[in-house]
Design a protein that fits this description.
- The complex is a heterodimer of chains A (498) and B (342).
- By secondary structure, chain A is α+β, with helices and mostly antiparallel strands.
- Chain A has a five-stranded mixed sheet. Chain A has a five-stranded mixed sheet with strand order 13-5-4-20-21. In chain A, strands 7-6-11-12 form a four-stranded parallel sheet.
- In chain A, helix 9 crosses helix 10.
- The N terminus of chain A is likely disordered.
- Chain B is mainly α.
- Chain B has one domain.
- The chains are: A alpha+beta (498), B mainly alpha (342).
- At the A-B interface, helix 10, strand 7 and strand 9 of A face helix 1, helix 5 and helix 6 of B.
Chain lengths: 498, 342
């Protein structure tokens, strides 16, 4: 027990100053350190971890980290990169220093994520049934109806429990003052949850001594919860629903995760060609003929789902699937058309959307965002351009972004012209000094920037997996935690309330 | 407890695509193991004096003459080793067979145990990175042993961890059909090798080769239990083809396939077992009604050829009954299908 550990004198005592000095050469500077910054209510666990970490020589850390990564590779916890010459299996780099959240921090994050998911679902139900929020002028109509991810096919089609977003990943960062802020909602097919569980297993294999006696919220329940939610949303009257996971197949970069989730749920992993629709009912092809399917947890995008409705060239989907769904003969998770809610353009309106439907303040703040289609937002952006990040609303993947502090005078001028030409296409945000955590680097333990993606499952109610995926930018100074840009991940610990 | 009211395993549906992948994963692994046995025994033959002939026969029993000639030209021991141990572009090589087994296992990861997958993944990593130095000289025998052991390890992990419902039966089907086929090829290698010089029959060299053949099939000691004194070519052929208890004998494998199909029918209620079951029965009867003298009189090679064609027919009937119709018009996914069947 943590309490026992601190009573036995392993704690560094009551002082609240940073513990960074215990780790040789480690200096987080002005950034909020997720491990060495003392917080209330940790029961001494943070100090225990720092102390234990400091006691393991760096060579030993390297040896064990390498062994842990080799295990991940051998177990096939990998994504496959296809080039012209070959297929290469890669692991998501695993950093062995955990990211620790106190019980109090987690309570706030959990409540904030639940609130956000509730608002997203209410918003989607509204825009696909009645569009009250548009009529009341809270969100501009063209942002929704003109959005490429808005699906007119979904109009006036009720879904069980009003749940559109059954699985949601909320990207959260922490600023220099330690305040959690939502960076992005992922309401379509968020990935990465398998690493949360596999990282915990890797940790238990490679660093049992680091965790010993520290009570953590378990992460194993995810598959069971997901399976339960999928059963809850199954068509009315089906006693023992057949759930399947629909994957694009072994060539998809997230195939390992699809396998992982199908196994954890105990359901078949199917590809489009395994399914067919007859008389608006969905079946899978088995060795003894066709077997009915009632709920599909799909990991393919809207536009590939059904070639009779969306992309005609899609070979991944199932002809007639959407019609079967609209007839109420099969459930789909996530629902079609959720992409309109996690769009960058809508993000800026989320605090207003939460207030509109729930009459509450946001528990988790957005990153402060100026909407340039609004005159005061444009004016404030133009006045402070060298200090802001300016983002186009329609794009994804970091295209078209101007980072003020790193831009040249000419780039800032070009940005100003684009803003004036089409203000509605832009938002601006201050640069956030992301929190850091000690990370094993060639120079020893050094601060690297982190983010957090908790996963929420919603059927009848919402449940949030304790912790989530902590991604880490492995390059010094980099704020990009994305796995395609050299990012890795850490085990995320949520301490049990003492 | 609700144990008694739980749905029997038979009620669990098995995706047709999974059944097909299980069948082929087992076949490719069995193929890799047997090819290792063939290469090992060929080296023994080479040592006894006719190197190029010995290696040529390996190419011939795998029906690879044209492809080999196109890519390598002259049959040298080095070229044949490279062709089967290092050349991943050759679909009948060991690395290609293990890669195909792994590809199927990847499809099957939701179904098979983590331990099965991890072992095959590591095996594949090793076998696809073999070097020229490792297959040369005295390395070959050690290499063959390790390949055999790796497949046997997979078999053991499967035995100890894989859930025994109908999926397991499709795996068994693939294994015994491929094993029967491979045993006929092992026998055939001896036939081809001796073809040019019938005068050698019964000589000391001849006997030592039959001896080596038995050892390659891991059958020497079992054979000795049945035939404590004499070792005649006829007795060896009889043993490998018709023995009822030797795990690699053709008859035993065929009986096992027949039993497995019967389980799929009676226990899991699979329709469509009729056609493959009839074909297996015909093959089994064909083996049981002939004794070895009659087979040798009619021509051993011709008989082995007939067995191989029957096995191809059985595999085809299993495919049509359980796999092929899963995607109408597509004829099944290319990656799991027979690479060098026939």
């Amino acid at each position: 027990m943590t309490g026992a550990a601190s009573r036995s004198g392993e704690s560094i005592g009551p002082g609240r100053e940073s513990m960074a000095g215990l780790l040789p050469g480690y200096d987080p500077g002005d950034f909020f350190c997720e491990l060495t910054r003392p917080r209330e209510g940790d029961g001494g666990a943070l100090a225990t971890v720092v102390r234990r970490l400091a006691a393991i020589p760096v060579e030993e850390l390297r040896r064990r980290a390498a062994a842990a990564e080799r295990d991940l590779f051998n177990l096939g916890i990998t994504f496959t990169v296809y080039s012209e010459a070959a297929q290469i299996d890669r692991i998501l780099p695993f950093d062995m220093v955990p990211r620790v959240l106190t019980a109090g921090e987690w309570r706030r994050l959990e409540a904030g994520v639940k609130q956000r998911v509730a608002a997203l679902n209410l918003f989607l139900r509204d825009i696909y049934n009645g569009q009250r929020i548009l009529k009341d002028g809270v969100v501009p109509e063209d942002l929704v109806l003109g959005n490429p991810n808005y699906r007119p096919e979904m109009q006036d089609f009720p879904v069980p429990f009003g749940t559109y977003v059954h699985v949601c990943g909320t990207d959260i960062v922490r600023d220099q003052n330690g305040v959690f802020r939502v960076l992005e909602d992922n309401a379509r097919t968020p990935s990465g949850v398998s690493y949360v569980i596999e990282n915990r297993h890797a940790m238990l294999r490679a660093f049992p001594d680091l965790m010993q006696g520290i009570r953590l919220r378990p992460v194993d329940g995810y598959g069971l919860r997901l399976q339960e939610a999928m059963c809850e949303i199954a068509p009315f009257g089906v006693d023992d629903p057949q759930v399947v996971l629909l994957s694009p197949g072994i060539y998809n970069a997230a195939y390992f995760e699809h396998v992982f989730l199908a196994r954890e749920m105990g359901v078949p992993l199917v590809e489009g060609a395994d399914l067919l629709v007859e008389n608006d009912r969905v079946f899978m092809r088995t060795t003894s003929g066709l077997a009915p399917v009632h709920t599909i947890y799909r990991r393919i995008d809207d536009t590939f789902l059904d070639p009779t409705v969306f992309r005609r060239d899609s070979l991944l989907g199932v002809p007639g699937l959407v019609a079967a769904w609209r007839k109420g003969n099969v459930a789909l998770a996530n629902a079609v058309g959720t992409g309109v809610a996690d769009d960058k353009a809508l993000y800026a309106y989320m605090p207003r959307i939460i207030r509109y439907y729930l009459d509450e303040d946001s528990i988790l703040e957005n990153v402060e965002t100026r909407i340039c289609r609004e005159p005061e937002g444009l004016a404030a952006t133009l006045a402070d351009l060298p200090n802001l990040v300016v983002k186009p609303v329609g794009e994804s993947g970091g295209y078209g972004i101007t980072i003020g502090p790193r831009a040249t005078r000419a780039e800032l001028e070009a940005c100003r012209e684009k803003l004036l030409a089409d203000p509605a296409n832009w938002i601006s945000q201050p640069v956030i000094g992301l929190s850091v955590g000690p990370t094993l680097t060639p120079d020893g333990l050094r601060p690297r920037h982190l983010d957090l993606r908790p996963y929420a499952i919603t059927g009848r109610d919402t449940w949030v997996l304790p912790g989530g995926l902590t991604r880490v930018a492995l390059k010094p100074g980099s704020l990009v935690v994305n796995s395609s840009q050299g990012g890795g991940s850490k085990d995320t610990w949520v301490l049990v309330d003492e | 407890m609700s144990e008694a009211t739980r749905a029997p395993a038979a009620a669990q549906a098995l995706l047709a695509r999974y059944a097909e992948s299980l069948f082929w994963m087992a076949r490719y692994l069995e193929r890799a193991e047997n090819l290792a046995r063939v290469l090992d025994v060929t080296q023994t033959f080479e040592a006894s004096g006719r190197p190029s002939q010995a290696w040529e026969s390996v190419v011939r029993i795998n029906a690879d003459e044209a492809e080999f000639a196109r890519r390598y030209g002259q049959t040298t021991p080095e070229a044949v080793r490279r062709f089967y141990l290092l050349d991943a572009d050759n679909p009948t090589s060991i690395p290609a067979a293990v890669a195909a087994a792994r590809r199927n296992a990847r499809t099957l990861r939701p179904l098979i145990s983590t331990e099965m997958w991890a072992q095959l993944n590591v095996f594949h990593g090793w076998v696809s990175a073999l070097t020229e130095a490792e297959v040369a000289g005295d390395g070959l025998s050690r290499l063959s042993a390790r390949i055999k052991e790796s497949v046997q390890l997979q078999t053991g992990i499967t035995e100890g961890t894989f859930y025994r419902d109908q999926g397991w039966h499709f795996l068994q089907l693939g294994r015994c059909i491929e094993r029967a086929d491979q045993t006929t090829r092992l026998l055939d290698i001896k036939y081809h090798l001796l073809l040019p010089s019938l005068a050698d029959v019964g000589s000391a060299l001849d006997l030592s080769q039959w001896h080596a053949l038995l050892r390659a099939a891991a059958g020497y000691h079992a054979f000795r239990r049945v035939h404590p004194r004499a070792l005649t070519p006829r007795a060896v052929a009889d043993f490998l083809l018709l023995d009822g208890a030797f795990p690699r004998s053709v008859l035993l494998c065929v009986r096992q396939a027949e039993w497995t199909l019967e389980q799929l029918r009676s226990r899991y209620g699979l329709r469509g077992t009729c056609e493959p079951a009839e074909r297996v029965e015909e093959l089994r009867a064909g083996l049981e009604e002939r004794d070895i003298d009659r087979i040798v009189e009619g021509g051993l090679h011709e008989f082995l050829d007939w067995v191989q064609r029957m096995l191809i027919g059985i595999a085809g009937a299993i495919g049509t009954a359980f796999f092929r119709d899963w995607r109408p018009g597509a004829g099944g996914p290319a990656e799991v299908g027979p690479g060098a069947e026939g």
